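Lab notebook, bench 4. The sequencing result for the construct came back, and we need a structural model before the next group meeting so we can plan mutations. Quick request posted to the team channel:

Model the 3D structure of this chain.
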Amino acid sequence: MKRNQTSRSFVYMTIGLALLFYALPRLPQATWSLEGAFTIAWLSFSVLIIGANLYQLIGVDKERQASRKQHRAWFAGGVHEFQRGYFPDAKREMRQQKQRRFMS
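Done. Here's the predicted structure in C-alpha cell form:
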C-alpha cells in the first residue's frame, strides 16, 4: 500500500506541475480585477496541490511519527519512575530491596 500511495502522489504531483506549466502563459495578469483574482486563486491552488504531494513523497509524516513515538516512550518512562519513587509505600519497598541485596 505504501508503494501505491507513493506512486499516486508522484503521478498527482506530475499532473499538477504539467497543468501549472501549461496554464501559466495563458493566465491573465494578476491585477486588481476579477481576472487577476482568478489568476491568484488558480496559482495558489496549484501550488497547494504540488506542495501536498511533495510533502507526501518526502515522507515527513514518517519522521513525525517516529519522533512522537520517542516522546511517548520517554514520557511513559518518566511517569513510571515518578510513580515508583513518589509514593511512600513504593519508597519503603525500594529501601527494603536495597537492604536485602546489601545483606545477602
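Helices lie at 2-23, 34-58, 60-86, 88-103.
Will bring this to the meeting.
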